[in-house]
Amino acid sequence: MNILYGVPGEGLGHATRSKVVMAHLLAQGHDVRAVSSSRAFHVLDAAFPGRVLEIRGFHLAYKGLAVSKSRTSALILRTAPASLQQNFRQYQQLLHDFEPDAVVSDFESFSYFYAKAHGLPVVSIDNMQIISRTRLDVAVPREERGNFQLAKNIVRLKVPRSRHYFVATFFTPPVSKARTTLVPPIIRPEILAARPTAGAHILVYQSATTQHDLVALLQQLPEQEFRVYGFNKEESHGNVQLKAFSEAGFIADLASSRAIITNGGFSLISEAVFLHKPICAVPIPAQFEQWLNAAEVEKLGYGRHFGAITAENIRAFVDGLPGFAGALAGYAQDGNAVLFANLDACLAGLAAE
């Protein structure tokens, strides 16, 4: 089949997992072209030269550590006209030598609109649909209910009436809608090949570098060794090592870590669960999906969920490491086999039509 694959540019998690699925589809003999934006485009273009078109995507705007709804809305309204014009030109270019039979969307809108305009079936593969296509098995506190409803509305409107939804997840709430299959998280080959060991250090991933007191805060726990990614610096501060970005270095530090401290991002949490690393999750405010991931980490006994990084919270997390490691020991996943088998069957059914 000829498959158009839509990948959003916001964050690199979409790109890394879509790269895994695209490689599988190409290996199965499908002709795959992708559309993406921003950093995700460059990641995919390097992996699949000549198969990726750059479009303009929408991006989140932040105020401090939190997502700003007003700034995000203003940014979208300001950039939407030019973005739509460029994307229309790119799709015209695509039509010259490629006619898709189906569209796969990783929470990406423009490929979805293309599919609907041309009467093509859409297959959704992402983790966000967990919010609207299952009955959540954690209690949502009052202060998160507004974020929950907003996220649910956005997810419902993103790729509605798709032929099937494959939802990547490390937890399994009851499915509430038809044409929905929960699958284990998509794990990149580098993580599949990693051999986890129990080192002495705790890996810290800081995506929002506005928390400038992080080093001083971690130094309040001199008995712990921390390796911190996110500031893109190589510096030593006693028990705190700031690490410049390196994919190989990050994976090695993750695989050999004692535990991790991160936000509520799905990709790193999923990799930590796969490698059986206890997780201290501090979600970015106003991002309900991150709150949900962190809440599920604590519910499953894989780690702790906190509203802020503090020395007291980290001590509480470290004290519980043996129990978290015990809970994680029961997690098992056969690579990406479950998703691939279900996706292949789905596409075979579409081809038969």
Automatic annotation (TrEMBL):
<dbReference type="GO" id="GO:0016757">
    <property type="term" value="F:glycosyltransferase activity"/>
</dbReference>
<protein>
    <submittedName>
        <fullName>UDP-glucuronosyltransferase</fullName>
    </submittedName>
</protein>
<keyword id="KW-0808">Transferase</keyword>
<dbReference type="Pfam" id="PF13528">
    <property type="entry name" value="Glyco_trans_1_3"/>
</dbReference>
